[in-house]
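Job type: complex structure
Entries:
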Amino acid sequence: MVLDKINSPKDLKELSINEMNELAEEIRPLIIKKVNTTGGHMGPNLGIIEATIAMHYVFNSPEDKFVFDVSHQCYTHKILTGRKECFTNPENYYKYTGYTAPEESPHDIFKVGHTSTSVSLATGLAKSRDLKGEKGNVIALIGDGSLSGGEAFEGLDNAAELDSNIIIIVNDNEMSIAENHGGLYKNLRTLRETNGKAELNFFKSLGFDYYYVEEGNNIEQLIETFNKVKNIDHPVVVHIRTLKGKGLPVAEQNKEMFHWINPRILDEQPQNAEPIEDYNSITNEYLYKKAQEDKNLIVINPATPGVHGFTPAFRTKMGKQYTDVGIAEEHAIAYASALAKSGSKPVLAIMSSFLQRTYDQLSQDLALNNSPITMLVYWGGISGADATHLCTFDIPLISNIPNIVYLAPTCKEEYMKMLTWSVDQTEFPVAIRIPTGDLISRGFEDNTDYSKINKYKIEAKGEKVAIIALGTFFKLGEEVKNELRDKLGINATLINPKFITGIDKELLEDLKNAHELVITLEDGLLNGGFGEKIARFYGNSAMKVLNYGSEKEFTDRIPVDKLYEKYHLKKELIAEDIKNCLFEKSPI
Amino acid sequence: MVLDKINSPKDLKELSINEMNELAEEIRPLIIKKVNTTGGHMGPNLGIIEATIAMHYVFNSPEDKFVFDVSHQCYTHKILTGRKECFTNPENYYKYTGYTAPEESPHDIFKVGHTSTSVSLATGLAKSRDLKGEKGNVIALIGDGSLSGGEAFEGLDNAAELDSNIIIIVNDNEMSIAENHGGLYKNLRTLRETNGKAELNFFKSLGFDYYYVEEGNNIEQLIETFNKVKNIDHPVVVHIRTLKGKGLPVAEQNKEMFHWINPRILDEQPQNAEPIEDYNSITNEYLYKKAQEDKNLIVINPATPGVHGFTPAFRTKMGKQYTDVGIAEEHAIAYASALAKSGSKPVLAIMSSFLQRTYDQLSQDLALNNSPITMLVYWGGISGADATHLCTFDIPLISNIPNIVYLAPTCKEEYMKMLTWSVDQTEFPVAIRIPTGDLISRGFEDNTDYSKINKYKIEAKGEKVAIIALGTFFKLGEEVKNELRDKLGINATLINPKFITGIDKELLEDLKNAHELVITLEDGLLNGGFGEKIARFYGNSAMKVLNYGSEKEFTDRIPVDKLYEKYHLKKELIAEDIKNCLFEKSPI
């Protein structure tokens, strides 16, 4: 195998074009097998094998610097830079991350997982090179989908002003995660259709020199063009047309489905099993029904329909009442705010980690204008995710902004009541933290009037210890209550706060009567979170408070069970802490 | 006067072109006098008088909807929409805000003060109109400077896809707050130089129809073009060339200085007084000296040089070691992170309120990569500012992100030590909250080794009560200490924490020995802030804690003294709270 000879990019430079073509065909099945085993980004990696080989053939990494946007397409790069064993040997499948990681290799410069950052990062590298009077190429590889993000535009606008070498490779596979959205994409199409020759050219309008490569999966053509721009003394865009999912027919044909896949997708037989009811399905069933009744309802999503179960069928039947704004989270918030201000009923679906792009828009465009949107926050909570995709920060992010009402349902009954209330109310910007995991039914009808904000619910009245268990951690609260009964003979009070963004002063004041200790449980970061507000409330009283949640750190693919152990998010550990606290020993 | 006849936009429609020209010349001195009296945005408003008249003549507000970007250019709009008395009668000068404000008038749709949001907001209004099957024009007015912000691009990219009416008026006065930066601006220049006829056209590349008005201060020409696009059925950009500061020669010639002015600028005689030493001057003196010694130092600023005292002279002498990235805060952080990763020493200067644009970049591009940049945060603290420009949120914003070290100096000696340490260290992303107000010297040499992070300093050892007084509120801490001595005979401990982002566990643990109560003082939001971490720390102990700072609310031009009263940020009120707390009465 050609791959046997490749232990670093240098080895690549000895190969002929034919050998490099062979190499690409050797790498392809390795990626397919590995991703089908572990899950991961399939389509993006299959489309960029040839370009990555050509990049490493023409340029000299790490002296020449590659910045991968999102870095979810870096598998071939990892294979070529001394890490092929994570693809050739299944035992090493989990040894390396699915993103660039400086701790793994000097060929990886940044830890990246969010979109649209590569051009800005590359501009900084280029400027640093220039300040030091050094030479070398700086190359950003960015997908067409990522170009719609504001940070990418800010980067392009600034990169274009560099008076020196910077090479932006635009990997145009005609797809974002799902289809692209935005006026820019018409221009990319025109450029493709004219072999890059159209007068109207977005990149040239910003001041870039521009090259087009129609066959972006043709190593020879790529090398030819990369050689033309190597050591160039001004900013240039190389626009290459690639095929997402190339070489795996099912991925070529189902580009959205194969952008990121769960393990073993390729092994499964098509099933006709009844679809499972989950938080996504009940949400989308409601949204569709409501959209039929009320033409003012509109669902908005920034480029992640798969996360929310917004299938192509759902999108089609929602028609004009569904907008995918592309990778444009900032726009999504302002857009939703204006829709609400005009009397429409926007429901914005967004993943906790990507919501981080919108702090200022949440504050200024939304909260300051007090626009009654409904924002559904997905995947919020402590998890074993990559450091780039942690969803533990949304409570501190949202809940310290005035005016927003952030709700934490504990079960499907509460969630549906909150959702239906929120969509029709006109008083508050409302966010709902959709529970993670399986659908939980607590088997009651929720008749709460959520317009009376910041009213917590006492689920079980007890004494001595009060457990305030937020959202998904309500279940843990129940377990702790039982543990306290069984192990310490304590009949604890159990509280379901429901509202993340406010304090129920009356209830908390009442607790002082028969309780010595309040514990808070939240599925997210302690710092700046929910529990600290409770600690502050009781600061001037004799009430003791223990807060449970995650610590301020970027964890990276640590199994959630280990994190629970570390953060004492287990009934036994919490009961032990409570025992120590009540009996004056030093707790955690 | 023509203005006497104008009480609503309807009255404008009766006027001839000549009368409208007269009206513009009547409005101009009113704006100059008012802004020179109260302070405010001078240049932007003087440049847009004619266009605002033409907009209100052609379109029918509020059925047709105007969205003003930043809305710092809305003075003529206010005059024409029933609020002229705030310009004609000095007694009413403070009656209305300097930005659009829905509570003032149905002609103002959004509360806006940050840049680059108008196109997204207008897109939402247009979409809502379409969902409801209504008619009408939606018009966004955006300055050329604001176009570099990522949110504006996301908005344009999405607006271009609307299958209906949206009109983006690009007010091109060839300036941002200072000069423009970015490749886009070369294209705007080309368009101006070709009377809008250049083939390469940024707006057309995104799919917009496009009109150019060379004389953007000519009411007749503006009306002619606005009439062409009125009721248009697709997205269109009207690019108008205006003169910033028009009609006030000193403002036309000093566009940057007259973007926003303090009161009475026009009345002052040029002075040759010695320049005052302040936090800006000592910062910039250090930065220039350091830049001379070390070619790796680079100062970065997103379009607000005036805030930091980066005068044209300073910028010139810094040469390639100064980069204004334009209105592009997201890019600024990623760019700085990459510079630091490459061994350069970036110092990023940014205003607290505008830093809000960068939460995700602080987290992902910076903190996750642990890049050793120095970020100087300006104007952080409680103030009487407009709701759109509050600087009270930076502590919750920054301090709940892992890895970043956020420092709060209490005086110039600490600040300079922190700054010089930060610039040369290579371990941490460091942010420094530059104190507001006059330079404070505490007359000692600071020999602290700040690489030993999260070590608080005991400034005075006492007992019973410990005062942890952060940054600018250290002075208040000293006052409280004296008040406790004088009124309650308590010799309180006074602590200068210096580090916002971490807990000095050892010191806090020690305090338990001789203290019953800890109070925290911070010049910013309590929710998610510094004090709550202290409250959490002591949650399981007998130590009582009182936290002082601002409440979670958008205050709007409330004098700071009233806010201090409300938040109990006065020595007498705090001493009273302490007395109540120690003697078991109910405190605040």
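Summary: The CA atoms of residues 72 and 506 of chain B lie 49 Å apart. The longest helix of chain B spans residues 17-38.
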